[in-house]
Recover the amino acids of this structure.
């Protein structure tokens, strides 16, 4: 996270409000306001290829409730999604499907590689003929999450890290 | 029928099967040549009526191969296992897809990943792997220098 200018990424809202009589004047940059708006309403794609998807569903459900951070509107079509969480193993046969889904998403779009399989092939790195050794061979990845599968807290942390990246104008 | 009753009943069939002891279910061992006739008896003989083939497995033992068929009867609620030993260099066995329709896909899978040839199978093609794939990925000696990283 060194590349993210902390002063922008950590602020709840970019810019300064100068109070005047009856209201105030906001001094900011349009790009930063747009990034701030985007970061607070990231719609994930409904996509999961194995057990990480179970943890992802748990993160979405009542106990961890990722809607607290603006991720509640999971979309079943890539045309309406902002972020794809690669939750599970990507096999050679799935790779072109993942590429197509990513291509069908409208810009700006973000990618989270959730768990060991999506990061590197994980437990299927050695002695297997069918698994892609990391989803970043297929599409670019913004945030990687370690774990097999990662706990919901780890996924939430990744989502918040992605928000910081977006607010910082890095991604 | 319980395990012992099933074994006694199966001993009346021809061709005769031998039995493996100590397993959870009655386990019969037959030759590839006798398997189809044996299967027909299991499917339709009174008292047996194994109408559901719920698992088809291929095993590569390095020196030979085995096909394992798990059968159950939805009428009598009994379960049995049939094992067929195959020559690893020419693994060939008659299909049972005309007896249990579900075997059509299960046998395609065993062909796809182990290279077991099911004679008289109506549609023996690759299932998971691409049509032009070379080799049988789940055999113990399978090598794939392009996709595999050896440990």
């Amino acid at each position: 996270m060194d590349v993210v200018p902390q002063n922008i990424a950590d602020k709840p809202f970019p810019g300064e409000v100068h109070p005047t009589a009856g209201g105030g004047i906001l001094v900011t940059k349009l790009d930063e306001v747009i990034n701030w708006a985007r970061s607070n309403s990231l719609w994930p794609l409904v996509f999961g290829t194995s057990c990480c998807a179970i943890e992802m569903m748990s993160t979405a459900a009542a106990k961890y409730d990722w809607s607290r951070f603006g991720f509640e509107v999971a979309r079943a079509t890539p045309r309406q999604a902002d972020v794809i969480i690669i939750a599970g193993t990507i096999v050679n046969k799935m790779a072109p499907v993942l590429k197509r889904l990513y291509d069908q998403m409208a810009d700006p779009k973000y990618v989270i590689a959730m768990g060991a399989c999506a990061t590197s092939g994980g437990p299927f790195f050695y002695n297997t003929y069918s698994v892609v050794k990391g989803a970043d061979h297929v599409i670019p990845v913004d945030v990687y999450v370690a774990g097999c599968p990662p706990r919901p807290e780890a996924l939430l942390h990744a989502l918040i890290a992605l928000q910081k990246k977006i607010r910082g104008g890095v991604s | 029928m319980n395990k012992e009753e099933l074994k006694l009943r199966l001993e009346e069939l021809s061709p005769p099967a031998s039995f493996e002891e100590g397993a959870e279910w009655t386990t019969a061992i037959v030759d590839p040549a006798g398997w189809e006739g044996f299967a027909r008896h299991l499917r339709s003989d009174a008292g047996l009526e194994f109408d559901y083939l719920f698992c088809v497995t291929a095993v590569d033992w390095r020196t030979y191969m085995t096909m394992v068929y798990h059968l159950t009867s939805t009428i009598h609620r009994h379960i049995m296992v049939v094992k067929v030993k195959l020559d690893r260099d020419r693994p060939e066995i008659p299909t049972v897809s005309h007896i249990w329709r579900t075997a059509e896909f299960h046998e395609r899978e065993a062909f796809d990943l182990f290279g077991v040839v099911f004679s008289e199978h109506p549609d023996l093609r690759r299932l998971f792997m691409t049509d032009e794939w070379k080799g049988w990925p789940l055999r113990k000696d399978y090598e794939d220098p392009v996709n595999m990283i050896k440990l």
User: Anything to note?
Assistant: Chain A has a mean pLDDT of 90. The longest helix of chain A spans residues 152-167.
